[in-house]
Specification:
Elements (H helix, E strand, L loop, with lengths): L1 H11 L1 H14 L5 H10 L6 H7 L7
Helix pairs in contact: 1-2, 1-4
Keywords: Membrane, Transmembrane, Transmembrane helix
Protein name: Cardiolipin synthase N-terminal domain-containing protein
Organism: Vulcanimicrobium alpinum
Length: about 60
């Protein structure tokens, strides 16, 4: 259920999802600076960036 809600937030509230993605990226210590930069750029892709981050990057929006 949480994943479905996160995907809906990502698709319809993209600006909020991008900010939440960036906050989560800033707090992660398992990624290098280059990986964080790449994910920050990918998150800007409208509607799919945060979804990719959740599914592929093992991220969460909250």
């Amino acid at each position: 259920m949480k994943l479905t809600l996160e995907i809906l937030i990502s698709a319809f509230l993209h600006p909020v999802a991008v900010v939440l993605t960036w906050i989560n990226l800033a707090a992660r210590s398992d990624l290098t600076s280059m990986q964080k930069a790449i994910w920050a750029i990918v998150a800007l892709l409208w509607g799919v960036g945060p979804i990719l981050y959740i599914l592929v990057g093992d991220g969460v929006l909250w």
